[in-house]
Design a protein that fits this description.
The protein is an alpha+beta fold. The strands form four sheets. Strands 8-7-6-5-4-3-2-1-14-13-12-11-10-9 form a 14-stranded antiparallel β-sheet. Strands 15, 21, 22, 23 and 24 form a five-stranded antiparallel β-sheet that branches. A four-stranded antiparallel β-sheet has the order 17-18-16-25, with no helix packed on it. It starts with a helix and ends with a strand.
Length: about 525
């Protein structure tokens, strides 16, 4: 699922503080309402072009109300294990002329059907909708829109030593952002072969995901004397995404040649030792150390994963195998805590049984495939085991060219990586009226992701599933199809694939990627 890393990198581009605004006067004139600005940035990694961002700001009149419209188109084109991987993100946002956010649409295209989410404010409510679901949240009417930070920089350029804090809503990240800017000293910076004297500004973005937790993202930008952002850098686990303001033709250079920047190794966490027979292990203990203090539920407690905090920045995580080696009717696992979880009897949420942007439960092909498993003669657990094997056999080709495919897209192509396995498995379970969700975490690999002949034990980010049976969320992994998920993994979070799930998954990645170390403590095999 390292495609999510690239999507995460892509979603963070908006936090590069839009380069396409200009000073806005207190009094709105006809000239301002009729004019606008358009700017282009070239995105590079390792000095090689990988994409662009276009930003356009216009002033309009909607039902007699003057507004600002921000249009932002971004494109990223890289390699994943030698396969071309393209993602496009389009954001169209409208704010009142004084800055408060009104509405937005965000469209992500990763090779399958585009995923579009809309945001609409009315009085003290924010309605978030997509093709299948709609959610209404409470909202403060004076929250600024995504263009706010840049416009404020242009209105009042920062000076060395100044610290400034700005809050705004970023729909592309589904988050309220509190940006703390610290202006350092001016420095000579190479901009397209020309040395320019620019002010260095270090930024800490505090992201508060709607209805979820808080993460931080650091970046650096350089502005000229007029407050225009000329260059930006975003570090992410050993890679640096660089954005430089350029003419349109320069920004589009990445389209001339095939992608050449390989991001397949993004997100690999080295392990101190290999795991012997990981699929057979009944219990595996890991020691996880984080750069920041551990937060509540950063690594959740489940019937199959226990977390014992050692100190503020480390914890022992014990994972039990859920593999049913004997193919019994019920779970075959020695887990004393399981009975307590059964007694607690977790209830399914409606979204764990519903259609959404990635799952169409009315798809005839999906229903036809699900009918190959006679669930009426099986227990729900046996049905899940059969569906795990069915998905494993249905997706016949591994493909890394698609970021996010719907269950319908997967059935057409019969190809994908763990993301597509997880989406299809969840869809089939829901057809069978079994609550199902996707799980984000880390899974063991004995090899380098870019070279299966190179031994390099590590943990890589992965998606699998959990299904609710007898009041307990039980893990399955259709990529491996072992009859349940093995113990060689660490769970980070889970999602229903509802309207904000993608942003939430990326949000969870921010708390882990490039910030943890993992040591294998102990692995136990059956007698």
């Amino acid at each position: 699922m390292r495609d999510l890393h690239i999507i995460l990198l892509f979603f963070l581009i908006p936090l590069f503080l839009l380069t396409g605004c200009r000073k806005i006067d207190t009094v709105i004139t006809d000239r301002m309402l009729q004019s606008g600005s358009e700017f282009w940035e070239q995105l590079t990694i390792e000095g090689k072009p990988v994409g662009f961002q276009r930003t356009a700001l216009s002033f309009e009149d909607i039902n007699g109300q003057p507004v600002k419209r921000l249009e932002r188109q971004s494109r990223l084109s890289v390699l994943r294990y030698g396969n071309s991987f393209d993602v496009a993100l389009n954001v169209n946002s409208v704010s009142r002329i004084e800055g408060s956010f009104l509405s937005a649409s965000v469209q992500l295209n990763g090779g399958g059907e585009p995923i579009e989410t809309t945001y609409q404010t009315e009085n003290d409510q924010l309605t978030i909708a997509n093709s299948s679901t709609q959610t209404t949240l409470s909202w403060k009417q004076n929250i600024p829109g995504p263009e706010t930070l840049l416009c404020e920089l242009l209105n009042t350029p920062m000076k060395s030593g100044e610290i400034r804090q700005i809050t705004f809503f970023e729909p592309a990240m589904h988050s309220l952002v509190e940006a703390t800017l610290t202006a350092r000293q001016p420095e000579q910076v190479n901009i397209n072969g020309v040395m320019k004297n620019l002010l260095r500004i270090e930024v800490q973005n505090r992201l508060e995901l709607l209805q979820a937790g808080i993460q931080t993202v650091a970046e650096t930008l350089w502005t000229d004397s007029g407050g225009h952002i000329i260059r930006r850098e975003l570090p992410l686990e050993g890679q640096t995404l660089l954005a430089v303001r350029v003419p349109r033709e320069k920004a589009l250079e990445f389209q001339v040649e095939k992608p050449s920047v390989e991001l397949g190794n993004l997100g690999v966490i080295p392990l101190n030792s290999s795991i012997s027979q990981p699929h057979r292990a009944t219990k595996i203990e890991f020691i996880v150390k984080t750069q920041k203090e551990l937060t509540t539920n950063q690594f959740p407690q489940t019937p199959f994963q226990s977390v014992e905090q050692i100190d503020k920045k480390s914890a022992k995580i014990t994972v039990l195998s859920a593999v049913n080696h004997n193919h019994n009717h019920n779970m075959n696992i020695n887990n004393p805590a399981l009975e307590q979880f059964k007694q607690d009897k977790v209830e399914a949420k409606s979204e764990d049984l519903m259609s959404n942007q990635l799952i169409n439960l009315n798809d005839p092909q999906l229903i036809k495939l699900a009918d190959r498993v006679d669930s009426e003669s099986l227990t729900p657990y046996q049905t899940a085991l059969a569906l795990e094997q069915l998905v494993h056999n249905t997706i016949r080709k591994t493909s890394f060219s698609i970021a996010l495919a719907s269950s319908s897209d997967v059935l057409k192509s019969q190809s994908g990586d763990c993301t597509e396995f997880a989406v299809l498995f969840a869809a089939l379970c829901r057809v069978k009226k079994i609550p199902a969700r996707i799980t984000l975490g880390l899974v063991y690999t004995p090899f380098s992701p870019l070279n299966n002949e190179s031994e390099q034990a590590g943990m890589v980010f992965h998606l699998w599933n959990e299904v609710l049976i007898d009041g307990v969320w039980q893990p399955f992994d259709a990529v491996l199809a072992l009859g349940g998920a093995d113990a060689a993994r660490i769970k980070i979070t889970d999602e229903s694939l509802a309207e904000n799930s993608l942003a939430s998954l990326c949000h969870s990645l921010l708390g882990v990627i490039g910030q943890i170390q993992i040591r294998l403590e102990k692995s136990e095999l059956p007698p």
